[in-house]
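User: Sequence in, structure out. Go.
Assistant: Echoing your sequence, followed by the C-alpha cells.
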Amino acid sequence: MKRLTHIAADGRAQMVDVSNKSLSARTAIASGRIALARETVDLVRKNEIAKGDVIVTARIAGIQAAKKTAHLIPLCHTIPLSDVKIDIELSTDAANVTCTARTVAQTGVEMEALTGVSVALLTIYDMCKAVDKGMIIGDVRLRKKTKSDLPGRE
C-alpha cells in the first residue's frame, strides 16, 4: 500500500520535498458542472443576469483562483503557471466548466485545474443565486494529467 506523501513518519502534515525532481512540462484538465433552471440558462445566454456577464466573470474568477491555489490549499507548492484556460459551455439545463492548466515545474498542476473549475462554478452560483434557488454543483474531477520531459534534460 502506498503511503500518503503529505504525512511524515511521525504523523505530522508536511509539504512534499520536490527539490530533487527535475523540471517537466505538465498539463492537467479538470471539469465540473452546475445544474441550472432552463430559465436561468436563457438569462445567462442573453446576458440578463443583474450582476453582469456570468460567463466572462466566471472565466476570470477561475483563472485568478488557479493562480492563487497555493494560498488556498495549505500543502500545495507554488508553481509558475504557463497557461490557464477556462471553457464554459451552456446546455439547456447546466453550465459545464473545463479548466486546462499548464506549467513547467517539479510537481503537477492538478490542484490548480481543480481550483479553477471549482471557483468558476462557485462564481456562476453566486451570480445566479437571486434567480435560481435549485442550482447544484457537481461532478468536479480531474479528467487528465500529463507529464513530459523537457528536451535536452534528463
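User: And one key feature?
Assistant: The radius of gyration is 18 Å.
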